Amino acid sequence: MGRYCQLVMGPAGSGKSTYCQTIMQHCEAAKRRVHLVNLDPAAERFEYPPSIDIRDLITLEDVMDELGYGPNGGLVYCFEFLMENMDWLEEQLGDYEDDYLILDCPGQIELYTHIPIMRQIAQQLQLWNFQVVGIYCLESQFIEDTAKYFAGVMSATSAMSMLEIPHINVMTKMDLVSDDVKDNMDRYFDPDPLLLADDANRSTRGKFRELNAAIANLIDEFSMVSFLPLNVKDEDSVAYILSHADNAIQWGEDQEPKEPTNEIEDADYE
Ligand SMILES: Nc1nc2c(ncn2[C@@H]2O[C@H](COP(=O)(O)OP(=O)(O)OP(=O)(O)O)[C@@H](O)[C@H]2O)c(=O)[nH]1
Ligand SMILES: [Mg+2]
């Protein structure tokens, strides 16, 4: 056995907490032991209460009230405070030897993309012998507009290169995708540069053609982005993502060999 965790990241409102709750529920039904860790000092309520909660150390509300920070500066302050008090986290995690943790992170993407805080947390978790996989959530509305999709892909890539841990992109809220987009979804999960550039050219002025082509090619050449679709209402879709995450951190290897399931092909996005 060992220590395993998923670091669940993504922009504000992208469905991180819902993803975490869905995994908790799925594992409970499967009688599999996982624990929720809340790393969002501004979180409000959880259906599955977290086993470890940053709000026991510091809350955004207190920081804003007492130090007069705004929400974004306050959040960075909370994480700097956490970094100075990593022994608190170590002690909290001490109870979870041989366990699987789901870490629900805040939605301020600067934590993943341009300040090294999440990177330091991921490194520290590895030093404490956790196998860590990053789960980057992007919501399905991003595939309804190619320019938004490019922005989402860039943020996911930035997080991936910043953290340097096994990384899985999850396209959340698939239940909200409209029928006409659903018919063309594959190009967004496993992007085809020509189709992407065509789409982008339709919604932008001519002078952006070269830029659209360059971004689409970059996405393709580095094979850096592919997405696993998540429909929280479809158990197969949840199981599929969990099996990929487990595989990325080799969870369960010593009990039984695990490969990602292929059940998604039959999964229903409705
Ligand atoms: N229809 C649908 N709504 C969803 C899904 N996932 C999340 N939502 C909704 O999207 C909103 C944001 O979801 P959260 O799970 O709180 O997102 P988050 O990324 O944790 O948000 P922050 O922590 O504030 O950054 C909520 O109103 C959810 O009910 C989904 O799969 N389907
Ligand atoms: Mg949340």
UniProtKB/TrEMBL annotation:
GO terms for molecular function: GTP binding; GTPase activity. It comes from the Eukaryota. Keywords: GTP-binding, Hydrolase, Nucleotide-binding. Residues 251-270 are annotated as: Disordered. Small GTPase required for proper nuclear import of RNA polymerase II and III (RNAPII and RNAPIII). May act at an RNAP assembly step prior to nuclear import. Belongs to the GPN-loop GTPase family. Binds to RNA polymerase II (RNAPII). This is GPN-loop GTPase 3. It comes from Coemansia thaxteri.
